[in-house]
Specification:
Chain lengths: ~575, ~350
């Protein structure tokens, strides 16, 4: 803004126009370039999706797509199923996570570091891998838990059946509870012990204080976490596809997938996607309002001292609770996956004659797509993370330094995909760019751009925070000493934001490597990613190869998470921005 | 010829005029403070001088060349100035030595010369032993010294300081005040210093420009600003004072409870009509008995209403008999008067200042 009205003495001598042009050109050019990039990545796919929902194949206006999309009981039932599943998963996740968050934040429970690591692991584990693990654990006939149950009790019926509505909801909750945990823990971290002391001194015991003071103070955060899990669930494709389809539970995302089976009915899918989009936009709006009522939580937080609540023997109960969650969310599913990946037949359990490396050998040396998909995943994700971060950085720089009056519009567009479920983003990209004149269907570019768009908000939030941390006077000090803006960026700003940006890049990269719901709509035969190939393998039903492939995916993810923790700090994935 | 001239400099943000027709001229080597309450436009004025903010009216000239005008602003990096920021803006990714040498590096000097000049400068600010440290390892006062060194080492045409001491604690602030003046005496760099702290401005400056609501109220040497405030704002902002309303008629100034011949007021013009004067608490003497005051020095009887002990002096509020005035009077620590006791006041007319 101000400092960019840069005219040299030479330019002053020239007439108005030349001076004016020099005055606005560099920043305006950058603004236009960014606006075009964001229009391409965010605005156009969304607009195209909306238009497509009102068009026939030939481009004439019609309401038929909506009539088709909502004209069958089965489709409507899928809608209701999604809402029910979202509510149930979010409830289970909240029940799991709130006591954990309270125990870690406020009490003297032992093993907090372990608990934290476990939340991190549940967060990093791709949801569809957890789902496959749970099929092996709790399939009605041959799931390990059920076999064990029958062996122990002699009962006929299975103990748990994963192929049910509640089974599906539980599996989803077991991977999404970290979101509630993070919300609630950071709220509890801000409540000072003096609040609780005030209740104690008036005669309330530990339990009454927790129920009447602490939990209500964390109320907005709990509700906020609930909403996020609800939205994650209704937008989730992998787990409902892997467990829901065999269980004949149809939800919106799996129904959208079916509209894409031959013959592709993209227009109907577009119409059918609208409620998902509207619900997401509305609920994120509601959640923003909820958390914006700052007077509730954070205001009192800062100064007050915080003490750990002494739980006595109960601390072991809390520890058991956290350990139990870790057992079911991470340890058991990962263990059965590893076992199956080295097994000739996974149902035969652990024994030496069941051990084989055949599954890995098949994938690594014989399978025609496995290695290609590994390579695809890595370079698609790296390219997408790079594109997203470059755009995010430039936008954040313009917004934070107020370089243009219209910079905020760019910031808004960069954050917009946050309220767009990935699956809808993918359908939008399909509608906009799959067919001529772009004809990008099945190309690597289409997937990379869709990933970049989908994860732009993560990149932007990171870049924005990084830029904010650099005081504008840091750059001004360079300029007054004789360096231009570029010199300031090169010698001061860039070195200062480097580390934070690396963390941002790695987060985008890691979430991109496990992305399924957007990829599954956009991949072609030669551009399959690991997640899509994994889904293909799950449809084929060969669980040993599937598990081995999951193992490979897990190892790759872990390597990058470890690199991230080394370079950007232990909690870099879990930082809330 | 003046080094730096601001003429009718104006800046608006929306409907608010934050800097309103400021005129100021600095001589070569002069140290001038912009002093005023927060929001008075002093920092905006400084940032216009630096080239970070374009003016909406008026101009800034350096050595006779216009460097800022509404339609043309020379960018900061081509002004040959340097600046010390409120946050210091010491680059945390560079060592002390790299910070100080950066401006010289930008001037493409040979690296041997950069090193000598940097170390010389660090020696001057007593930081040579910390040259290899990173800023995070320095205290606030040390960072301040690095900022000073970094700004001065390039021998700038004008040095700008934006409330440089506001983040330091009281003792350090006092120390750095003298350090800044010492460096000015050593290098004689033309300096503009922005502060809201009058003691700071008085200790450092050759002249002070008092700003209020975007305008310069008065520019004068510090002692004149104190003794001869020209506006009600300056009288009230610099030190404490009694503002007394009165009337001038027949060459006599008459206020509620006392009067004195206009000639006693040390050559200040006193046009007939209502007049406001400023009378410092220090220019009133307190006595237990009728004082033997020189001719023309008004004497009043009064009663102590309130008192506060301030450490260096007593702050009394005295109500003169047969007057509605409430006068603040300063008294030495051992000159103790109880509340309610009767006292005599003697005014020194030479220390009265006529204000608008």
């Amino acid at each position: 803004m101000a400092s960019e009205q840069v005219i040299t003495r030479a330019a002053t001598a020239r007439t108005g126009w030349g001076a004016k042009l020099r005055n606005v050109e560099p920043i305006m050019a950058l603004w236009i370039a960014l606006a075009l990039a964001l229009a391409f990545l965010v605005a156009f796919p969304l607009v195209k999706l909306m238009i497509a929902s009102f068009e026939t194949r030939d481009g004439a206006f019609t309401l038929n797509n909506y009539a088709t999309a909502y004209g069958r009981a089965r489709y409507l039932e899928a809608l209701f199923n999604s809402l029910k599943l979202g509510a149930l998963s979010a409830t289970i996740a909240t029940v799991i996570a709130v006591p954990m968050a309270w125990a870690v934040s406020r009490t003297d429970m032992p093993g907090k570091g372990f608990c934290w690591a476990m939340v991190m692991a549940a967060f990093v584990l791709p949801p569809y891998l957890g789902a496959i693990g749970w099929i092996l654990l709790a399939g009605p006939n041959s799931g390990f838990l059920n076999i064990l149950w029958r062996a122990l009790t002699g009962a006929e019926d299975p103990l748990v059946n994963i192929y049910t509505f509640s089974g599906l909801a539980t599996v989803i909750a077991l991977h999404s509870f970290p979101l509630v945990f993070l919300f609630v823990k950071s709220a509890l971290d801000l409540i000072s012990s003096e609040m609780e002391d005030a209740a104690n001194i008036l005669g309330a015991g530990t339990i009454a204080t927790m129920r009447r003071v602490t939990l209500p103070l964390a109320g907005p955060a709990i509700l906020g976490g609930f909403i996020i899990v609800f939205l994650e669930t209704i937008a989730l494709f992998g787990t409902p596809a892997i467990i829901g389809i065999p269980a004949r539970i149809n939800v919106v995302t799996t129904q959208l997938w079916q509209f894409f089976e031959h013959p592709v009915r993209m227009e109907v899918a577009a119409a059918y996607a609208m409620p998902l989009l509207l619900i997401t936009v509305a609920m994120i709006g509601a959640q923003k309002l909820l958390l914006a009522r700052k007077g509730f939580v954070s205001q009192t937080g800062k100064g007050g001292e915080r003490r750990e609540i002494k739980l006595g023997a109960w601390r072991w109960v809390m520890f058991a609770w956290c350990g139990g969650v870790g057992l079911f969310a991470v340890f058991l599913p990962v263990m059965v996956l590893i076992q199956a990946s080295f097994a000739k037949a996974w149902g035969r359990g652990l024994s030496l004659d069941n051990f084989t490396l055949r599954n890995y050998r098949l994938l690594l040396f014989e399978h025609d797509m496995a290695l290609t998909s590994v390579w695809n995943t890595i370079w698609f994700s790296a390219a997408a993370a790079t594109i997203a971060l470059i755009i995010a950085l430039l936008v954040a720089y313009m917004v934070v330094r107020k370089l243009s009056r219209f910079a905020d519009a760019l910031g808004f567009l960069a954050m917009a995909p946050f309220v767009i479920p990935g699956i809808i983003m993918a359908i939008g990209f399909y509608a906009a760019y799959a067919s001529p004149p772009f004809a990008m269907y099945g190309t690597a570019a289409l997937i990379i751009l869709a990933f970049a768009a989908r994860f732009l908000p993560i990149a932007y939030a990171n870049a924005n925070a990084a830029m904010r941390a650099v005081h504008p006077e840091m750059e001004e000090a360079v300029r007054i000493l004789g360096g231009g803006r570029m010199t300031a960026i090169r010698f001061v700003t860039a070195p200062l934001v480097k580390r934070a940006l690396l963390g941002g890049w790695l987060i985008v990269f890691i979430v991109a490597t496990r992305e399924l719901s957007a990829a599954v709509f956009l991949v072609g035969p030669r551009t399959r990613t690991m997640s899509v190939l994994l889904y293909d393998l799950s449809e084929a039903g060969n669980f040993e190869v599937l598990a081995a492939f999951g193992g490979i995916l897990l190892v790759i993810t872990m390597v990058f998470v470890a690199v991230g923790m080394k370079l950007a700090g232990r909690d870099f994935m879990l930082r809330r921005s | 010829m003046s080094r730096l001239i601001l003429s009718n400099l104006t800046k608006r943000y929306g409907a608010i005029t934050v800097v309103d027709g400021v005129d100021l001229a600095l001589e070569e080597g002069e140290f001038v403070s912009l002093l005023g309450p927060s929001g008075c436009g002093k920092t905006t004025t400084l940032r216009m001088i630096a080239g970070f903010v374009p003016p909406d009216g008026g101009s800034i000239a350096l050595d006779g060349k216009t460097i800022s005008a509404p339609d043309s602003v020379l960018p900061p990096e081509r002004r040959g100035m340097s600046m010390i920021f409120q946050s210091y803006a010491i680059w945390p990714n560079m060592t002390v030595e790299e910070n100080v040498g950066f401006g010289l590096k930008l001037r493409n000097l040979p690296s041997a010369e950069i090193r000598t000049r940097t170390l010389e400068m660090l020696d001057t600010v007593q930081m040579a032993h910390l040259a290899r440290r990173y800023p995070a390892e320095l205290s606030g006062g040390q960072q301040q010294r690095v900022a000073l060194a970094r700004a001065i080492v390039i021998k700038p045409a004008v040095l700008l300081l934006d409330e440089p001491l506001s983040n330091l604690d009281a003792n350090l602030r006092e120390e750095m005040r003298f350090e800044i003046r010492r460096l000015h005496n050593a290098f004689r760099i033309t300096t503009v210093y922005v502060t809201h702290d009058q003691a700071e401005a008085m200790a450092t400056s050759d002249r002070i420009a008092v700003m209020n609501a975007g305008r310069v109220e008065q520019i004068d040497a510090p002692h004149l600003l104190y003794a001869r405030p020209r506006t009600r704002f300056v009288a009230g902002f610099i030190g404490r004072t009694n503002l007394i309303e009165g009337t001038v008629a027949n060459a006599t100034f008459a206020a509620d409870g006392f009067s004195l011949p206009a000639s006693a007021m040390a050559g200040q013009a006193l046009p007939p009509g209502p007049t406001l004067v400023s009378l410092r608490p220090q220019s009133i003497a307190l006595h237990r008995d009728v004082p033997d005051a020189p001719n023309g020095h008004p004497v009043m009887q009064g009663t102590i209403l309130e008192r506060t002990y301030l450490g260096e002096s007593w702050d009394y509020v005295v109500s003169p008999a047969e007057s509605a005035l409430r006068l603040r009077v300063a008294g030495p620590p051992l000159d103790v008067h109880d509340v309610g006791s009767a006292v005599w006041l003697a005014l020194d007319p030479a220390q009265l200042a006529v204000v608008q």
